[in-house]
Design a protein that fits this description.
By secondary structure, the chain is mostly helical. It contains 16 helices and no strands. The protein has one domain (7-447). The protein is globular.
């Protein structure tokens, strides 16, 4: 990261940081993408089981990731202020927090997974696959959260290209493991959809090992001695990370958990609808990686400028990021409308599921337009360390407006399962508008 003096310089720096983040996020999302695609080709029950398991796991891991994302604005502002010697301490405290949160997730899952799945009235085969899939994923929870902390540190320093290369290198490993464990090739056990859980867990361990070796061996990171150095637990440091991270995590949890809840509510429409809904959500999540990546890049550059007390430069980055996200969203929406049948064909050969996926994708084209506004603004606000209001807006727009409205519409025969997606669209639009108002107020306050 460096100070820029012209608009062209800011565009260049934003792109340099953004593109590797985007590739990294697509790679992470591709893990779920290949899980869903390969499960769908194993059987309809495998697709539905992995869908249910993923919709329970996704809000948890994204919510915890959100808490750990507190490191990004903290380190970005330290970097902008030139306080580099304080960074290793912050990262090590974040690692302690990651291990504690992973333990809480695992223990909670031991007691709650089966009761939650039992309450869904799933078909026995789907219940069994979902339960075993989540058990498999549990083996990778600790390394996943630890690698998130280390990756946040590397990205915030501006070395997003390195984390991109790590993810690109491990993605083929995950695909090969899926191929071996889902279909039982080359003498491996045929585990069906459950195999995707074990493949992901193994991949998480590999990511952690490669990331740790990178920090240990590369000169630009080894001087910080992140891997070698230990510090006593600091309650003050953990309190600061939780103060920033908990609102971020809960805001993300509000966004992602609603999709998991809707997936369970879709159960009354049958396995075919569950499978189609999950496939459409999976692809929409892949498209969402662009505004999410812009959001993460904006947190880094805005936090860097705010740490250096250059508030006008932070505003310029904001306009660049949001403008680019909206332009890209319009392009992606047109693509979803024009090529929805081709996209649906990636997930299944079953005609009934295929047709439903196409219909769901048309709704996805609309709600991702609001995502293109909301996600970058959230990233900017995190750069300012303004996170509490973001959580409140997410709670209101998704759970007070989106879900109730979607539930009401779903009982209308004209909408059926698509009613939930209409609720998404309205909730996202309201949330984006509220975030825009909040950003305006924060920027005016910073300039004053």
């Amino acid at each position: 990261m460096r100070q820029t003096y012209t608009l062209q310089g800011k565009i260049r720096q934003l792109v340099i940081i953004l593109l590797p983040i985007f590739v990294t996020q697509v790679s992470l999302c591709s893990l779920s993408f290949f899980d869903t695609v390969m499960s769908g080709h194993a059987s309809q029950n495998d697709l539905a089981g992995v869908a249910i398991g993923s919709n329970l796991w996704m809000p948890v891991f994204t919510g915890i990731n959100g808490i750990l994302m507190a490191l990004t604005p903290i380190i970005a502002q330290l970097n902008g202020a030139g306080r580099h010697k304080e960074m290793p301490f912050v990262v090590v405290q974040g690692s302690y927090l990651a291990v504690v949160l992973a333990g809480i997730v695992i223990m909670t899952g031991v007691f709650l997974v089966r009761p939650i799945l039992s309450s869904m009235n799933l078909e026995p085969a789907v219940f069994d696959i979902a339960c075993r899939f989540l058990t498999a994923i549990a083996f990778g929870v600790v390394p996943f959260f630890l690698s998130t902390v280390l990756r946040n540190f590397m990205d915030t320093l501006g070395y997003t290209r390195i984390t991109m290369l790590i993810m690109l290198g491990t993605l083929p490993i995950n695909v090969v493991l899926n191929y071996l464990l889902v279909f039982g090739n080359f003498g491996f056990p045929r585990l069906g959809g459950v195999g995707t859980g074990y493949a992901s867990a193994i991949t998480y361990w590999i990511i952690l090992c490669v990331t740790g070796l990178t920090l240990l061996r590369m000169q630009k990171f080894s001087s910080y001695a992140i891997v070698k150095r230990t510090y006593p637990v600091s309650l003050a440091a953990l309190k600061e990370q939780l103060r920033i991270g908990i609102p971020i995590g809960f805001a993300i949890f509000c966004e992602t958990s609603i999709f998991g809840v809707v997936a369970t509510l879709m159960a009354r429409f049958g396995t075919v609808t569950i499978a189609a809904h999950q496939a459409a959500i999976n692809f929409a999540g892949l498209v969402y990686m662009l505004p999410l990546s812009i959001s993460m890049a904006l947190t880094i550059v805005v936090g860097f400028e705010i740490g250096a007390k250059r508030v006008r430069d932070a505003r310029q980055y904001t306009y660049l990021g949001v403008g680019f996200a909206v332009f890209a969203a319009i392009f992606c929406a047109l693509g979803l409308v024009l090529f929805n049948s081709e996209v649906a064909g990636l997930y299944t050969n079953d005609y009934d599921v295929l047709i439903l996926i196409q219909h769901f994708l048309l709704y996805a084209a609309f709600f991702q337009l609001s995502d293109a506004v909301a996600a970058p603004i959230q990233g900017v606000l995190r750069g300012y360390k303004d996170v509490k209001v973001t959580f409140i807006i997410a709670l209101l727009s998704y759970w007070v407006i989106g879900l109730p409205l979607g539930s009401i519409l779903s009982y209308n025969q004209a909408f059926g399962p698509f009613g939930y997606w209409l609720g998404f669209i309205v909730g996202l639009a309201v949330g984006a508008s509220a975030l825009l108002l909040r950003l305006t107020r924060v920027q005016r306050k910073s300039l004053a």
